[in-house]
Write a structure and sequence with these properties.
single chain; alpha/beta; 7-stranded mixed beta sheet; 6-stranded parallel beta sheet; 34% helix
């Protein structure tokens, strides 16, 4: 091997290591998986986790990513030893992170690498992660805010009204799938209306939550007045609320399907629902055999902290106006439901729209 080839190989391998960190930071798991050979392995004994093959690396990475509140990784150059079409090396890592369940810390680590030259260029044949230092002291910083308010402080309510970009929708859908939800990206409410019709069989017992998204899209009307389903909401409205509270509770808790929207969906793959009475939450939480959530693009937020802020600063004021006009009483966030994952595969479907609808 001549000196120029060796230099070129070293530059490409160093770029490969940088691409790994960039993919992790950008939460681009398909790109990160493509940096490995088809039979490549990523091993992290400290977690413990071990993934072999590109699909395992992608899916496993998405599961881990879904737990982050925030994550920062910096790669520092290490060694590269060339051996023809293979090579070995080490890269030195500094990371700080906080997970959604409160675990946090700063660490220094080493990736022990094996590389292989392929038709696609140099790829990882194996990365083995070794932690050399770990500090779990509380981090003084905070999770990054949404991009629109990163420089100006907490975002006003109106900043939660703009639709998310195509990239953010794809990232959110991937995280939802990694968490056990079915997730589809649709163009608009018309597509959502048709898809809901496809998902729910004729004659099913269906409960619709109180949702501006469902009302504005026409989905609420399709279900509750179309005659195709055994609609729960009309039956609930016909029951005397003073004497029939138990009947209402039973009707709304365990339908075949619940169709609803959410107050926010995070790019880490969690759904957040808020309620004043809590009456619609049991079906969403697991009481319904199946759930369909129709979500406008403006409800996508980076993380759980921003989702809760969206509930208080954006959704609640708008719902309060509606509640006062319809019921003559103010609204309140008395109950919150956070769905981090769907343990029953096939139960929950999230329809993410490219347009903003509802609030």
């Amino acid at each position: 091997m001549n000196d120029f080839q060796a230099i070129a190989d070293r530059v490409e391998i160093e770029a490969l290591r940088g691409e790994f960190t960039d993919s992790a930071m950008m939460r681009d798991r398909p790109r990160l998986a493509s940096l490995f050979t088809p039979d490549g392995a990523l091993r992290m004994p400290n977690i413990p986790a071990e993934f072999t093959g590109r699909e395992e690396i992608r899916a496993g990475g998405e599961r881990l990513q879904s737990q982050w509140d925030f994550f920062v990784q910096t790669t520092h150059p290490g060694t590269i030893v060339l051996e023809g079409d293979t090579a070995t090396g080490r890269a030195y890592i500094q990371e700080l992170a906080r997970t959604l369940d409160g675990r946090q810390g700063l660490n220094y680590a080493v990736y022990h690498d094996r590389y292989r030259r392929t038709e696609e260029g140099w790829r990882f044949a194996e990365r083995v992660y070794e932690v050399r230092y770990l500090d779990t002291s509380p981090l003084a910083g905070a999770a990054p805010r949404a991009a629109e308010d990163a420089e100006t402080g907490p975002a006003p309510a109106g900043s939660f009204a703009g639709p998310a970009s195509a990239e953010r929708l794809e990232r959110t859908a991937a995280a939802l799938r990694a968490n056990g939800f079915a997730a589809e990206i649709l163009d608009d409410t018309a597509a959502a209306r048709a898809r809901v019709g496809d998902l729910i069989p004729e004659g099913a017992v269906v409960f619709t939550g109180a949702s501006e998204t469902l009302r504005l899209s026409g989905i609420e009307e399709d279900i509750n007045t179309g005659g195709r389903y055994d609609a729960v909401r009309p039956r609930v409205l016909a029951v005397d609320r003073t004497t029939g509270a138990d009947e209402i509770r039973r009707l709304t808790a365990c339908p075949d399907f619940v169709v609803n929207s959410v107050a926010a969906v995070t790019e880490t793959g969690s759904l957040v629902l808020a309620s004043g009475s809590g009456s619609r939450l049991p079906a969403n939480a697991g009481g319904a055999a199946h759930a369909v959530w129709v979500v406008g693009a403006q409800k996508v937020v980076p993380d759980l902290g921003t989702a809760l802020r969206r509930v208080e600063e954006h959704a609640l004021p708008l719902e309060d106006v509606r509640a006062r006009a319809v019921y003559g009483t103010p609204s309140a966030v008395n109950r919150l439901l956070v769905l981090h994952a769907e343990p029953r595969p096939g139960r929950g479907t999230v329809l993410l729209l490219r347009e903003a609808v509802g609030y």
